Amino acid sequence: xxxxxxxxxxxxxxxxxxxxxxxxxxxxxxxxxxxxxxxxxxxxxxxxxxxxxxxxxxxxxxxxxxxxxxxxxxxxxxxxxxxxxxxxxxxxxxxxxxxxxxxxxxxxxxxxxxxxxxxxxxxxxxxxxxxxxxxxxxxxxxxxxxxxxxxxxxxxxxxxxxxxxxxxxxxxxxxxxxxxxxxxxxxxxxxxxxxxxxxxxxxxxxxxxxxxxxxxxxxxxxxxxxxxxxxxxxxxxxxxxxxxxxxxxxxxxxxxxxxxxxxxxxxxxxxxxxxxxxxxxxxxxxxxxxxxxxxxxxxxxxxxxxxxxxxxxxxxxxxxxxxxxxxxxxxxxxxxxxxxxxxxxxxxxxxxxxxxxxxxxxxxxxxxxxxxxxxxxxxxxxxxxxxxxxxxxxxxxxxxxxxxxxxxxxxxxxxxxxxxx
Length: 421
Prior knowledge:
Keywords: Membrane, Transmembrane, Transmembrane helix. InterPro entries: DUF898. Pfam families: DUF898. By secondary structure, the chain is of the alpha+beta class. The protein has one domain (87-402). The chain contains twelve helices and ten strands. The protein has helices at 5-10, 35-51, 57-70, 85-115, 120-151, 166-182, 188-200, 216-246, 251-282, 297-337, 341-383, 392-400, and strands at 29-31, 72-74, 77-81, 153-155, 158-162, 203-205, 208-212, 284-286, 289-293, 387-389. Strands 1-2-3-4-5-6-7-8-9-10 form a ten-stranded antiparallel beta sheet. β4 and β5 (158-162) form a beta hairpin. The two termini are 37 Å apart. The relative contact order is 0.13.
């Protein structure tokens, strides 16, 4: 069995793998993801999470990250994830201790406004303040989530880190969010550019620094296409609703069109985000070493479309299969008991309703696992090999002198860093 880089260091073996720069893999990213293995993991984690009423989700998230991180390699050596489920669970409890009182306070104020028969403006202000605070907390949590993920990630025993102020990020993200809302979404490219710069300019790999100079105007070119598509789809949807309400078009005729509209939106969003990722990567440096991102966006978008259709098909087939088994079981019981026709129909309906919930749960688990495994495996195997760092030999020489000890044993003081929001 192949040793990890950390294990080779501890064993006193040469601190390189057989796939270093001299074998032609230096500076290259690669990913080895098995869709079947990923499907099995996702299904197992979904079942265990359901059986434990959601508690196992922290162990599931940790296991999935550890698996995916280890399947991504650079220069022949894998990335490693050092986070623990305990940290995620404690972070969730801390987040819950913050969000639960906030929700209760908002509810009490809403009840008081209703009981006092105050104007609608008071209720509107209360809701606006609540959602602004919530947006700020989510932005704060997002930055600390990125800090947590980076601090628990290493490559050749060199750990990532994220400096900067989460409070500053949350405050400015709140201002950008308000500007985006006021501009009907047109300020979003500048918000996205600032958020990427803020995170990447504070990211580190050992002593090597990341830097990003992406601009909002560069993202705007890509965003206009997505924004225009949303407007067009919105107009089509509004026209369909108008024709439906006037009775000119039957509901059966508009149903497939509405389904296609809502299918196009996530596919278009995936294409937009991948385009932005390419742009941000090309404008990012690691110790002045340029990063290149060249991959086929259409392949990932197609996999997302296939994953969605596959998930829907798996859901329908599973639901129909389980319900068919339930129907056969019910009919068999009727035959054995000799129930009369009217009573038999009622018995079948009641018994089939009992089968509906477990059938729906199982179908959802299988469909989600199938869709995620298809999309994630395609995403990693398409995007990761398309990344490259210029002059990687010099960069690897710099990183070789940064064999710092792991920082993931610092305790739970930063437990709020987790992605539990």
